[in-house]
Design brief:
With 182 residues, the protein is an all-alpha fold. It is built from nine helices and no strands. The radius of gyration is 16 Å and the shape is globular. The two termini are 30 Å apart.
């Protein structure tokens, strides 16, 4: 169970991104209208995440991207927000098709581009096939494993999207994950 401060922080984050997406008045209206389903199955946070990859990562993948006493996330730098904005230009605004990120080691390129975007693409059924490449096969398998773990254990994703991995009826192994949302 989340403590009151965590719920408050989630609400502040949701309001911030709704305000950015729709303006202050509409954000307040949406929060009041959806007060019974802000973070639940296909709730308001689900809708906000569909329109903002940045919000999706900061809310649904908060244990990776938001420093807390119980995780090892590091503070984000302006470059991380810049990357999310570029990704939104590709996937949400269709302004261009390709992105090349050349940044120093340790800048969370893989975390944002492989992990964050892959989770977003699968949650919202934006990609029929997502291929993860890496220097070594074991690295790609680790990325795939991390994505699988997010869908099997991440309470934020499960609460808003439901269980998207069903290993009894779909292919789920170290090389391939077939999601049950198509």
């Amino acid at each position: 169970m989340k403590n009151k401060d965590d719920v408050k922080n989630d609400l502040i984050l949701l309001k911030k991104y709704l305000t950015r997406l729709y303006g202050s008045d509409k954000a307040k209206e949406l929060i009041l209208k959806n007060k019974d389903n802000l973070f639940g199955y296909h709730g308001l946070s689900y809708a906000a995440g569909k329109r903002s990859i940045e919000f999706f990562c900061l809310y649904f993948l908060q244990d990776t991207f938001v420093p807390k006493p119980d995780n090892d996330a590091r503070p984000l730098a302006p470059i991380h927000y810049d990357i999310w904005q570029e990704l939104e230009k590709i996937f949400l605004k269709d302004e261009y098709d390709k992105l090349c990120c050349a940044l120093p080691r340790g800048m969370a390129k893989t975390t944002i581009l492989d992990y964050g975007v892959s989770c977003w693409l699968q949650c919202y059924k934006k990609s029929i096939l997502t291929v993860i490449g890496a220097k070594k096969e074991s690295d790609a398998m680790n990325f795939s494993s991390r994505i699988r773990k997010a869908f099997e254990e991440n309470k934020y994703i499960i609460r808003a999207f439901g269980k998207l991995i069903d290993s009894k009826h779909y292919i789920v192994n170290s090389m391939e994950i077939e999601f049950n949302n198509g």
